[in-house]
Every structure is written in structure tokens, then in C-alpha cells.
Amino acid sequence: MGHGYASEAVTALPHYLFNMRAKEQIIAWADTRNEASLVLLQRLTFNSVAGETRESWFKGEWSKELKHVMTRRAWLELHGENDA
Predict the structure, then answer these.
(1) pTM reported for the whole predicted model
(2) Reduced to 3 states, what is the DSSP secondary structure of residue 83?
(3) Which of 11, 28, 67, 72 is placed for a possible disulfide with 52 were both Cys, Cβ 3.0 to 4.6 Å?
(4) Does residue 2 surpass a pLDDT of 70?
(5) Cα distance between residue 49 and residue 53, in whole Å
(6) Does 84 map to a domain?
(7) Which residues form the domain of 43?
(8) Which strands sit side by side in the sheet containing 61-71, from one edge to the other?
């Protein structure tokens, strides 16, 4: 089982990108077989984009990745943070 490092890092990333770097959206790709990554993205309120998939070669085999997006507006509304 993991130590939660990915969760901690990914949780801090939206705050940095939206508030400190003024980015408008974050795009994340996750392997559809990686349930932990999919759950983490969902918990962080990333939205999967229907039909947006891509194939990638990973660890000696082809895998399918699903695109997820989080917008700055949604993040700020959810977390009650001031627009920087």
C-alpha cells in the first residue's frame, strides 16, 4: 500500500497552479487500469472527459489513458479561495 505521497503532492498542485501561476485549467491523464489514480483524481474534483482517451506504451504493453480536467473556476468555488 502507498504512503499517500502522490495524494499529498497532487492535492497541493491545484492550489499552486491556480493561485500562484494563474493557470486556467489542469489536464491529467490516468491509466484506466490504475484505480488508485482514478479515485484520487475524482476525489480532487477532476472531471473525466467522455471519449477523450489515448493509447500509450507503458511497462511493455499498450494501455488506455483517460483525460481528466479541472478548471480554475471550479477549484476556487469548491475551496472558497480568493481569485489571485
Answers:
(1) 0.79
(2) coil
(3) 67
(4) no
(5) 8
(6) no
(7) 5-79
(8) 25-31, 61-71, 47-58
